[in-house]
Amino acid sequence: MTAPVIEARGVGLTFQTGDGPVHALKDVDLAIAPGEFVSFIGPSGCGKTTFLRSIAALERPTAGDLRVNGMDPDAARRARAYGYVFQAPGLYPWRTIAGNISLPLEIMGFSRADRKERIARVLELVELSGFGAKFPWQLSGGMQQRASIARALAFDADILLMDEPFGALDEIVRDRLNEALLTLWAKTGKTIGFVTHSIPEAVYLSTRIVVMSPRPGRISRVIDSTLPRHRPLEIRDTPEFIALAHEVREGLRDGHAHD
Ligand SMILES: Nc1ncnc2c1ncn2[C@@H]1O[C@H](COP(=O)(O)OP(=O)(O)OP(=O)(O)O)[C@@H](O)[C@H]1O
């Protein structure tokens, strides 16, 4: 078996708050192989974001061991192991789309010529070629989110971490972006960790679905997808898709039963 890109062993994270400890994660064991598309789904407060943020070294686990490309998350961050996409696009309004994508590259010290080449390439990947000179407010919400994905892709990290990137968008736009994301994933072979509240989105996108439950946040079920990698949107009407969605729903219900 190839070495996992992300490996969690007994990971726990307890926040100390004024109201006492909050067990955001407990005993999380998970290994993600290169090229997988893994979704995290579960009710509010089950630790999905905390787990993604821990991978990205934005939170520090208080128990267990977490490795990203074989390194501790801080070292992985320094090695630019991943790009991170937040729920809100978070683009600077005073910079053009190209300028926004350029910013992390500037901070990392990429040359002007290299930046230009990378910006053109990622804009094409997210189907925004020709929009580089626009300002964020001149783009729709879906286009802005695609621009933020382009920004996360620009420095060629193998891992893409996405925290509910399409949660704020209407369903038609979300469908289109889901399709575009699968195309992008097929083209780039990246490993993707994706947080969502939507069962159809998780089933449509993932090779594996991690169902989580709250208090304490933990993994209650891991479901391997039986769907082929090539997935037209109509796949959502097939019995295989409906069976997987059912299994996720059952997992969510089981998780609640422990409350
Ligand atoms: N910085 C923090 N300090 C204290 N508690 C926190 C902090 N961040 C998260 N929590 C708590 O940890 C638990 C897990 O939160 P987290 O945001 O990871 O859940 P989630 O599954 O992503 O929820 P949602 O779907 O609402 O985004 C929650 O009870 C939350 O209130």
Automatic annotation (TrEMBL):
GO terms for molecular function: ATP binding; ATP hydrolysis activity. It comes from the Bacteria. Keywords: ATP-binding, Nucleotide-binding, Transport. Residues 8-235 form the ABC transporter domain. Belongs to the ABC transporter superfamily. This is ABC transporter ATP-binding protein.
